[in-house]
Amino acid sequence: MLDAIGLDGDHVTLYRRLLEAPSAAFDELARLAALDEGVVRRLVEDLEDAGLVARQGSAPDRVVASPPSLALRPLLLESERRLAAAHEALVHFSELYRHGAEQRAAPDVVDVVVGPDAVRQRLAQLQASALERVDVFVLSEVALMASAENVEEGRALERGVRYRVIIESEVAQRPGFIDDAHATIEAGEEIRVLPTLPTRLFLVDDAIALLPMYSHGPDRVSGALLVHPSGLLDLVIAIFGEYWATARPLLGSDEPSVSGADRDLLSLLVLGMTDSAAASQLGISVRTVQRRVAELAERAGVLSRFQLGAEAVRRGWV
């Protein structure tokens, strides 16, 4: 809430408790905020520096909250002033960059990002700057950035950025992937599947693309190529569009006659997963998978798993 002025959740909790009480000693604050007294003393010092609390005149060992309208307004106005100045700088620097980009020669269309840490940093920056859409190729090998590290994806989804992700079919066999996919799809991400993809890819707002210098092998994250607006970027955009048009949605359709659990199962079977692998992904037994496949085959009026897959696609179950 107050992170814009350098305060974290513990600071906010402590300030709330003080706002609710006329005054409080350190031990009382520690009990009210469920924090160690030593931590409370440090937090109070930070709040004092920010002007949010003060020592009580008649009892210096007690602290009182400063009125929010007096304490916070100057801090927020200063933050707004800094943000406005930063925005002006952004506009100015962007204009300089645009002018420089217009003069780019052919070799300058691509920048080289060297080292795995630099690649991860640039990926985070690209997603943080995304305005409308991020398009991604995900290969079955180790990703450019692990999902747990990619906090910017969640932030981008929260602010309404659309993600279109194409994965190789083997990616769906990773432990826990289907559960994670449900969460990201619910957040607004679209996931489609193809048997194989040519390389990893991050494409942001059709304005800039990042590709690894090596699409496969042990050097896959040693560096990356940053592609600026050009004929090459147009080609990357067109290639993603072609792959997206031919890829199949990961978790199928929303046809009411097929339950969500059955759609998930059918999607995994169409990907070529064994009963054992599908059972592991869905957290059910192999026998349950086999029973549900038999029931779906009977409902579809087919005799084999291959026919079930084809009929499921025809009916829009997946």
Model description:
The chain is α+β, with helices and mostly antiparallel strands. It has three domains: 3-69, Orthogonal Bundle (Arc Repressor Mutant, subunit A); 107-249, Endonuclease, Chain A, CATH 3.30.870; 260-315, Winged helix-like DNA-binding domain superfamily/Winged helix DNA-binding domain (Arc Repressor Mutant, subunit A), CATH 1.10.10. Helix content is 50%, strand content 16%. The protein contains twelve helices and eleven strands. An eight-stranded mixed sheet has the order 4-10-9-8-5-6-7-11, with helices on both faces. Strand 5, helix 6 (151-158) and strand 6 (162-168) form a beta-alpha-beta unit. Helix 2 (26-33) crosses helix 3, helix 10 packs across helix 11 (286-300) and helix 11 packs across helix 12. It is flat. It starts with 8 loop residues before the first helix and ends with a helix.
Beta-strand fraction estimate:
15-25%
Share of helix among residues? Answer: 40-55%
Which CATH-level-2 architecture of the largest domain?
A: 2-Layer Sandwich
CATH fold node name of the largest domain: Endonuclease, Chain A
**What is the total domain count?**
3
Strand order of the largest sheet: 4-10-9-8-5-6-7-11
Number of helices: 12
Q: Give start-end ranges of low-pLDDT stretches.
A: none
Structural class: alpha+beta
- Give Rg in angstroms: 27 Å
Domain HTH luxR-type: 255-312
Protein name: Transcriptional regulator TrmB
Organism: Microbacterium horticulturae
InterPro entries: Sig_transdc_resp-reg_C-effctor, TrmB-like, Tscrpt_reg_LuxR_C, WH-like_DNA-bd_sf, WH_DNA-bd_sf
